[in-house]
Design brief:
This protein has five helices and seven strands, in the order βαααβββαβαββ. It is of the alpha+beta class. It has a single domain (about 1-155), classed as Aminopeptidase. Strand 6 (about 135-140) and strand 7 (about 150-155) form a beta hairpin.
Amino acid sequence: MKIRKIKIREVDLFLDFFRKSIKNQFDEYSKKSKDFLLKKEWTKERIRNSIKGNNVIFILSFDKEKIVGYLIGNHHFGGIATVMWIAVDDNYQGRGIGKKLFNNFISLSKKEGTHKINLTVTNKRNIGFYEKLGFKVQCFSEKDYFGLDSYLMYKNIQKSKW
């Protein structure tokens, strides 16, 4: 299993996997929300521009040449980075891939001076996974993004340099 940042030539491969994961693994999102995310928000052009400009961090997990997981996150602002999306192929779950994706993101984030990582959880059953990685629930937000109830979670990863 290889874990590394995306390369520009892998955008099509990533986009195929990303679309499948959004459609099949995020049941809490409505069809309207998924259509918006896939057709307007996370387009091929936006992803390519984000990679070229290093605006967003895309970390992929590979089994040989096949993408089996990803983590998408922001660079820190004021010392706080945000994980926007994470998914692992259903057939590869339970093998520590999600943990490895997070560890890679945390390592990159520390080098950039990040002291805290935030993420939003829209599926309550996933909270335990994040807690095992050291994240804590900060608050509950009713009718948050896309009208979904969510939990803001955080993990302090090093002392603040601010």
